Amino acid sequence: xxxxxxTANNWTVDGADINDSGSNATLLxxxxxxxxxxxxxxxxxxxxxxxxxxxxxILVATKSGTSAFHGDVYEFNRNNIFNANSYFNKNATxxxxxxxxxxxxxxxxxxxxxxxxxxxxxxxxxxxxxxxxSGARSVLR
Length: 141
Known about the structure:
Blueprint: E1 10-13, E2 16-17, E3 19-20, E4 26-27, E5 36-42, E6 57-62, E7 70-79, H1 87-91, E8 101-113, E9 128-140
């Protein structure tokens, strides 16, 4: 972005810097895909408040709780049965089968009102929560 290396970009989640300056471009806190409310990409002429990096500024805002319960569930599935065999594997004698590849990335998000006994009434609460959970499983041979 802006003609610089990808390590020159600055990432923030909810206003907090998530770049590890000591390990050359490691991101410390990567939110789940479904936990992201919106993202903004600032490039070229951004104001001095973003003056940390010469590349782009990637601003991520996560979802927050609301007065009603909501959530979602997801899974990204990758399996070798969906892949085509390569040209060279098919033309070899004997035919070489596809390599085993299985990757599952799954998770959920949930959010809503937070009821605190003896301090809130169900009709009027000012506390809410929102949280993601994700996991991954991979098999490559």
